[in-house]
Specification:
single chain; alpha+beta; Collagenase (Catalytic Domain); 3 domains; twelve-stranded antiparallel beta sheet; five-stranded mixed beta sheet; 25 helices; about 30% helix; signal
Length: about 900
């Protein structure tokens, strides 16, 4: 989850858009690092002995007898690989049976220095890297190969060898064989320098190194703490001190120290049967280019991420009986979690059992307290065999739910949910600002443990949903009519949206007297459907393609029912796919929401009273009121030039893309005129502001008005409106009608106050930019279809109809400006005349600064015509897993 606010705070995490857009760059960096054969060289410097990965051929040692290396003084640990510690060195005994077996390797922080602020990598338990390794023998060496799964072909097809020839596995590192074991069924290698070395795959990322000017590992202040072997995994725990020129704690040390854990988990010899994705049902997943099909082109196939659930009793399952899975999905609660929140976190996990019942499984998922050292001395929250909700002592207002999957099949293997302590502050703010008008229990500075616990349970369920493979479903909340959210009967049964994976927070629509008491989302109709679709078990004799056909039939039956609609995150063209919104009409919902904000704002000081405390809480919540109001404006604005996106297959009728109706677009503009451009003076509460505001509120409201105005006039939005007009003629809400409606709201009759003067200048300046500035957006190497998939529209504004219309609009405004008035009013209109004159008679055109080119995942792109998309040039913060 994430949070949008003027302060830029966010909440949640899996996913998402920044990760997707940056993924291709990260992959290139990783591949470059992997395409070198690494050996390990030990050197001595004034700061100590340093192990570094170097390129080249290692010095060949003589292979000794096993007993010469592994002496009686050796400490032995048996498991996946037998491990040995002797005289400060660590050895792996790799059996022949595990040569060329694929193993998932995950490196995490165990402990981090205070003050670490590298985004996404800050706290103990957070993941640094994951890879698949294969231990391969070559002559007298053992090598670690890092296989790639981006392209494939079935081994029975003609293309198999060709794919192998162009998809060579990179070599990460090589080791000399030190000895053969006693029965020659395995080899012995020394891994000491490998784990002590400065290798990105099992150490700090390049971003962290750059942030703290790290130049290498200092072995005089580093060591391997333990290497433990278990039946299917190895756990290597080390303390590493890096030479650093920019320590987050104390630069006098010249270093920064971390504790890291690298888990190596044996992957199944036979991968789980993959499930082919369907863009109409939301799942995280992966894509492969498959050359082994009968298609007359390279075919990109998507597979979803999901846990392996198989019934204990397939016969009973086939009869429709609920059956327990062979292996349950288990989450442990971090022992560092405050005890009072543990039951609520566990309940948020267990709530998903009703969704798994829709897929035919009972007791499929369970939350547990982590065992104590006495109960299980081998248990570790860093162990890749265990999924954990990790609790971070942090002031970050966030929580996120990632997962690690088998790249061969999409099988989810483990997850470490990140839970930041200060998420409670965020929940308090939202719950108060969105519900206090009808909810007396929210009218307080601090909630009871029971109240906060229920909110934690809701967030726990949302994050666990991500770890089950479900992304955000931003289209879900649109399924419920606005007035239904004012019904106690309806909300008691359904909550606020059909999916807990939407950003449908708390019920800001219900009004006093409605009697509504169930105010937040719950696992709903869509969630049950998605789990049924992703986790229903089919006999092993059915291929993924056969399963796809069955599942497509299920999906076709749900098509058109808004309860089961999946609306992806990542596009800004569809007004249904918005975060933090509720109901099927943003104008109606916003009107109710504003009515409640007007009830809440005057009571902030009274409701947040705390003896002997300052007014920081009043200031924080006042900002939240403004932020919530701004959300309503954004929800409404997206309707203007908006398009509905409904993914379909050939056998479904109707449009994939169609424009929002003319009436609704016009209604959106009228709403903005009434609620925003007619200055919302109710936001200026002098009694409350006198406790903390030092003269900022006037400019804040001005900025809010002008920012929304600029959003409306974004050239991409105008281009899409022209596209609508060309296709639908009089059925379209036109740019000419938009300009007329804006002018009616901005240039009202009578003497303009400070807000209206600012707004009028903002309108003229925006029109001037459209007329004279090169606002074209078309990054090199990126197609129109790629941009449109993410709500971006390339446009050559100089050749469009925008400029002629803008020029005509400016002339109308200039002709209609009144004359006279008091000194300030007269000066204002004279200034507008001058601004319009400068716009119509510009100096040489100034090129707009080029926008950064962003890598786009072309495999996610939409081929159908969608009339172009839209996205702010300066979008609000968007961060998630």
């Amino acid at each position: 989850m994430k949070k949008y606010s003027p302060a830029g705070r966010y909440f949640c995490g899996a996913a998402c858009i920044l990760v997707m857009l940056a993924s291709s760059c990260a992959t290139k960096k990783q591949t470059a690092a992997q395409n070198q054969s690494l050996t390990l060289k030990t050197t001595t410097s004034p700061t100590g002995t340093v192990s570094t990965a170097t390129v080249g051929t290692p010095k060949k040692d003589v292979i000794k007898k096993f007993s010469e290396v592994i002496t009686d003084k050796t400490k032995t640990d048996s498991g996946l690989f037998n491990t040995y510690k002797v005289e400060g060195k660590y050895y792996y005994e790799i059996p022949d049976s595990l040569i060329n077996r694929e193993m998932l390797v995950v490196t995490r922080y165990v402990k981090t220095p205070g003050g670490l602020k590298t985004f996404g990598q800050q706290y103990g338990g957070e993941q640094l890297n994951s890879q698949v390794w294969k231990w391969e023998r070559h002559d007298k060496q053992i090598m670690i190969r890092v296989p790639s799964y981006s392209i494939r072909a079935d081994s029975t097809t003609d293309m198999y060898q060709s794919v192998k020839n162009s998809n060579l596995d990179a070599v990460l590192a090589s080791f000399d064989i030190k000895a053969f074991n006693k029965d020659t069924t395995g080899v012995l290698i020394d891994v000491t320098d490998f784990y002590n070395g400065d290798i990105t795959a099992i150490g700090l990322s390049d971003d962290v190194k750059k942030a703290y000017k790290i130049s290498g590992v200092d072995n005089t202040r580093s060591y391997i703490d333990t290497i433990k072997s278990f039946p299917i995994n190895l756990e290597a725990h080390s303390l590493k001190t890096y030479r650093s020129g920019e320590s987050p704690t104390d630069n006098t040390n010249g270093a920064v120290t971390f504790e890291l854990n690298t888990s190596m988990l044996l992957l199944p010899k036979t991968p789980m049967k993959a499930r082919i994705s369907d863009e109409r049902v939301g799942f995280f997943g992966q894509r492969q280019t498959d050359y082994g099909t009968n298609a007359q082109k390279s075919l990109v196939t998507g597979y979803i991420h999901r846990w392996r659930l198989e019934p204990k009793d397939p016969v009973a399952y086939a009869k429709g009986q609920l059956v327990e899975p062979k292996k349950k999905i288990v989450y442990y609660i971090d022992p560092a979690t405050p005890k009072k929140w543990v039951p609520y976190l566990i309940q948020g996990i267990n709530d998903w059992n009703k969704a798994f019942e829709a897929a035919g499984f009972k007791n499929a998922i369970v939350g547990k307290k982590a065992p104590t050292p006495k109960e299980d001395p081998e248990f570790s929250t860093e162990d890749a065999r265990y999924s954990v909700i990790r609790y971070f002592a942090s002031d970050v207002e966030n929580a996120y739910g990632p997962h690690v999957s088998d790249p061969r099949s999409g099988e989810i293997l483990e997850s470490h949910v990140g839970w930041y302590h200060n998420v409670m502050s965020l929940l308090r703010d939202w719950y108060l600002i969105q519900t206090a008008a009808i909810n007396p229990n929210a009218r307080k500075a601090q909630f009871t443990d029971e109240q906060m616990g229920e909110l934690i349970r809701f967030v726990s369920s949302h994050e666990i949903g991500h770890t089950l493979g479900l992304p955000h479903n931003f289209g879900s909340s649109y399924a419920y009519p606005v007035d239904s959210l004012r019904s106690k009967t309806f909300t008691d049964k359904h909550g606020t949206a059909p999916s807990i994976m939407d950003y449908a927070r708390f019920n800001y629509i219900a009004q006093p007297g409605d009697g509504v008491t169930h105010l937040y989302p719950q696992i709903g109709e869509y969630d049950l459907w998605a789990i049924k679709w992703g986790y229903s078990w089919f006999p092993e004799n059915k291929t993924p393609q056969q399963e796809k056909e069955i599942l497509a039939g299920w999906t076709n039956k749900k098509a058109g029912n808004p309860l089961y609609y999946y609306g992806r995150q990542g596009t800004s063209i569809d007004p249904r796919l918005q975060n933090e919104d509720l109901g099927d009409n943003a104008m109606k919902a916003g009107t109710y929401g504003i009515a409640n904000l007007k009830r809440i704002l005057p009571n902030l000081e009274k409701w947040t009273y705390q003896k002997d405390e300052n007014f920081s809480d009043v200031a924080e919540l006042y900002n939240e009121v403004i932020g919530q109001f701004n959300r309503y404006m954004g929800h409404v604005t997206t309707n203007i030039g908006g398009m509905n996106e409904n993914f379909k297959t050939y056998d479904q009728k109707g449009a994939v893309y169609d424009f929002v109706s003319k009436t609704r677009q016009h209604d959106a503009m009228l709403f903005l005129n009434k609620q925003l451009f007619q200055t919302p003076l109710w936001l200026i509460n002098k009694a409350e502001l006198s406790k903390f505001d030092n003269g900022l509120i006037l400019n804040r409201i001005k900025a809010l008005q002008v920012t929304v105005l600029a959003n409306i006039l974004n050239p991409s939005r105008l281009a899409r409106m022209y596209d609508n007009e060309a296709k639908n003629n009089t059925k379209a809400y036109t740019v000419a009608e938009l300009f007329t409606d804006i002018r009616a709201g901005v240039f009202t009759t009578g003497k303009p106050d400070a807000f209206k003067r600012n707004l009028q200048r903002g309108y003229i300046d925006n029109m001037k930019n459209l007329l004279n500035t090169d606002l074209s957006f078309s990054p090199p190497g990126v197609t129109s279809a790629q941009l449109a998939a993410f709500g971006l529209t390339p446009i050559n504004i100089a050749l469009s109809d925008i400029r002629p219309m803008v020029r005509a609009e400016l002339k109308k405004i200039d002709a209609g400006l009144p004359k006279g008035g008091d000194a300030l009013t007269a000066a204002h209109f004279a200034d507008l005349h001058l601004r319009i004159k400068e716009a119509l008679n510009p100096k040489p055109i100034v090129s707009f600064p080029s926008l950064p080119t962003r890598s786009l995942n072309t495999e996610e792109l939409i081929k159908e015509d969608n009339g172009g998309g839209y996205m702010n040039c300066w979008p609000r913060t968007m961060v998630d897993q």
